[in-house]
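Lecture notes, continued. The same structure-token format from the folding unit now serves as the input rather than the output. Read the line below as a description of shape only.
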């Protein structure tokens, strides 16, 4: 019986910690991205019908703001 597990994201080759690898930040960043996308993508699609540029900005917000801010705030 297989279940769906929590995705583990690894980012190696950075200078933010002595190990030069990050696991916690990218994993939490992905989870925050997914949670924000569940809310913002349908709203952005609705807004896109009336204001194209505003709808694109709303739908891009999880990838351009949420994910980078979470992975940069957690150094491990």
């Amino acid at each position: 019986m297989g279940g769906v597990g929590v995705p583990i994201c690894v980012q190696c080759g950075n200078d933010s910690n002595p190990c030069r690898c990050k696991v916690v930040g990218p994993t939490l960043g992905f989870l925050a991205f997914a949670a924000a996308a569940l809310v913002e993508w349908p709203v952005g699609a609705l807004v896109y019908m009336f204001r194209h540029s505003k709808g694109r900005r709303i739908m891009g917000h999880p990838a351009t703001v949420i994910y980078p801010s979470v992975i940069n705030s957690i150094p491990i």
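Point for the exam: The mean pLDDT is 85.
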